[in-house]
Automatic annotation (TrEMBL):
Organism the protein comes from: Planctomyces bekefii
Stored PANTHER family: TRANSPOSASE FOR INSERTION SEQUENCE ELEMENT IS1557
Protein name from the UniProt record: ISL3 family transposase
Superkingdom to which the source organism belongs: Bacteria
Residues covered by the Transposase IS204/IS1001/IS1096/IS1165 DDE domain: 147-249
InterPro entries in the cross-refs: Transpos_ISL3, Transposase_DDE, Transposase_HTH, Transposase_Znf
Domain (Transposase IS204/IS1001/IS1096/IS1165 zinc-finger): residue spans on this chain: 33-76
Length: 250
């Protein structure tokens, strides 16, 4: 559930008609921790009661409720302490959001996942954005040595994105619209100047825009053209020569 030793379940309220299970929570003791300074301080009062959607229990929608205490910190002033089971401003517990992130990629669409979870489409989008933010906060870019830059078409194939990836760890670092040198320059800003100088090699197609951007932003990196595009251009060249010789022999 995500509770720590400072919180207890004060009651269990089951509503069979509405198929809900409500669990009021209470804090134990008078000493709390400031969410900003981390200092132990006294409790001043309680904020208004809030509720959080939790994982369903036996097909009953489970709701946590609590009046979260506010602390009186000598450094920061009066602050509402952090609820250990949820992110700040979220209406869902961390466990529910983790479950939602597992359901979303396993569903055919965001709408179908939202229907299974009992939430709306916009709420599913918000949960995804928070998950991405948590992932970016945990992400380390210190060991990025081999990078890939590539274009991706979407929609009906007339719109393009440029993607930068960490090849060694098989992860996307960032995405920008279009496939210009400016797009590639923006992607390189994902890495600091120090990190860009540690990049050993960059795999890309034969785009002059990507090559120029890489030479400017990662001057120590070796540029490697991917096998797919080399094979494509080689086959096109061979086919061009074949057609020319065929015309001469006729």
């Amino acid at each position: 559930m995500g509770l720590n030793q400072d919180w207890v379940i004060a009651d269990v309220q089951l509503d069979v008609e509405k198929r809900t299970l409500t669990l009021p929570l209470e804090v134990v003791g008078d000493c709390v921790v400031c969410p900003e300074s981390g200092a132990a301080c006294s409790m001043k009062d309680h904020a208004a009661e809030r509720s959080w959607r939790h994982l369903d229990a036996m097909q009953f929608q489970t709701i946590l409720t609590a009046k979260v205490p506010r602390c009186s910190c000598e450094t920061c002033g009066v602050k509402t302490i952090a609820a250990p089971w949820a992110e700040k401003h979220s209406r869902f517990t961390l466990l529910f959001e983790a479950f939602a992130i597992d359901v979303l990629p396993a569903s055919q669409s965001i709408q179908s996942a939202a229907l299974l979870l009992g939430i709306d489409w916009s709420t599913a989008q918000v949960i995804m954005k928070r998950a991405v933010a948590r992932g970016l906060e945990r992400r380390s870019l210190d060991q990025v040595s081999h990078v890939g830059i590539d274009e991706k078409s979407f929609g009906k194939g007339q719109d393009y994105l440029t993607v930068i990836t960490d090849i060694d760890q098989s992860r996307v670092l960032d995405v920008t619209p279009d496939r210009t040198m400016e797009s590639a320059d923006a992607l390189w800003k994902t890495l600091s100047r120090k990190q860009r100088r540690k990049v050993k090699a960059v795999c890309m197609d034969m785009s002059q825009a990507y090559e120029t951007s890489t030479e400017t932003n990662a001057p120590n990196a070796l540029i490697v053209h991917d096998r797919f595009h080399i094979s494509k251009y080689l086959n096109e060249a061979v086919d061009k020569v074949r057609r020319a010789e065929h015309r001469e022999l006729q």
